[in-house]
């Protein structure tokens, strides 16, 4: 029964945490018994079971309970199969969503070598606009996961494609994550490539795209500031914040700091 498998998936994370805490007694139980079930249910015929399996996997990754070898040898191959060009449409949409969500939880090497090539392919998927939409909405997170060199070499050309996509929702998603993408690039790329691209979005024929671009204008401009002098930095949750100066900290040592936070692309997308 699908409901039984779904319920089982919901119990996997707390069981895994228990096994981790009791590892001397159960050294291999999670890797031998539970992890294979999670991987298998990612391809279950029932979509509710698959969804429960995906949620369980993300929790396990977030809690750092999955071994690097299992990620590279079991999880990534399944996701690459599900997101292949000839894969079923529903499976492909789910797989790209998981790839985007798990990118921030994996090592940069794993993301760049195993997942980034497929992500770049999916950005150009001409069959499903839903796939391109997910890629556009999570573009900033992928850039942050792989760093400046891979972003400028592989991702920026794909970002240009998505910013000129025929579907206005794609261009809107790009406008919303523009700050996060810009923050990952060098000042030269920011000035010579991203600035003209942003002007095209702020002049878009669709008012929803223009509105999203205007909302991202301030955050985008802030990426041109020198972080050491302006005090700007990106938090782990993707928000842009201002670090108070030493003088402000000394003068308000008895009061809580009032950091100014600007909403990031991920917050807008939510």
From TrEMBL:
Start and end residues of the HEAT repeats are: 115-154
Q: Which PANTHER family match?
A: SERINE/THREONINE-PROTEIN PHOSPHATASE PP2A 65 KDA REGULATORY SUBUNIT, WW-BINDING DOMAIN-CONTAINING PROTEIN-RELATED
- What's the protein name? PP4R1 phosphatase
Give the highest taxon in the source lineage.
Answer: Eukaryota
Question: Record's InterPro entries?
Answer: ARM-like, ARM-type_fold, HEAT, HEAT_type_2, PP2A_Regulatory_Subunit_A
GO cellular-component terms in the record? cytoplasm
UniProt keyword list = Repeat
Alphabetized GO MF terms: protein phosphatase regulator activity
């Amino acid at each position: 029964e699908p409901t039984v498998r779904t319920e089982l998936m919901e119990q996997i994370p707390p069981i895994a945490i228990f096994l981790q805490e009791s590892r001397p007694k159960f050294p291999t139980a999670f890797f031998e018994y539970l992890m294979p079930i999670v991987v298998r249910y990612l391809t279950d015929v029932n979509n509710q079971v698959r969804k429960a399996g995906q949620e369980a996997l993300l929790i396990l990754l977030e809690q750092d309970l999955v071994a690097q070898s299992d990620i590279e040898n079991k999880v990534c191959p399944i996701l690459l199969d599900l997101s292949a060009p000839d894969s079923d449409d529903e499976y492909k949409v789910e797989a790209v969503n998981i790839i985007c969500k798990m990118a921030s939880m994996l090592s940069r090497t794993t993301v760049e070598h195993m997942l980034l090539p497929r992500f770049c392919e999916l950005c150009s998927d001409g069959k499903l606009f839903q796939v391109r939409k997910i890629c556009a909405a999570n573009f900033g997170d992928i850039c942050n996961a792989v760093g400046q060199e891979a972003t400028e070499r592989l991702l920026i050309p794909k970002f240009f494609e998505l910013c000129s996509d025929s579907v206005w929702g794609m261009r809107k998603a790009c406008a919303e994550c523009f700050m996060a993408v810009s923050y990952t690039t060098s000042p030269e790329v920011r000035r010579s490539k991203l600035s003209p691209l942003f002007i095209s979005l702020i002049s878009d024929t669709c008012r929803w795209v223009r509105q999203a671009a205007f909302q991202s204008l301030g955050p985008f401009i802030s990426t041109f500031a020198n972080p050491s002098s302006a005090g700007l930095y990106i938090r782990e949750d993707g928000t842009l914040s201002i670090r108070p100066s030493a003088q402000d900290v000394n003068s308000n040592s008895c009061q809580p700091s009032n950091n100014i936070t600007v909403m990031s692309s991920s917050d807008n997308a939510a």
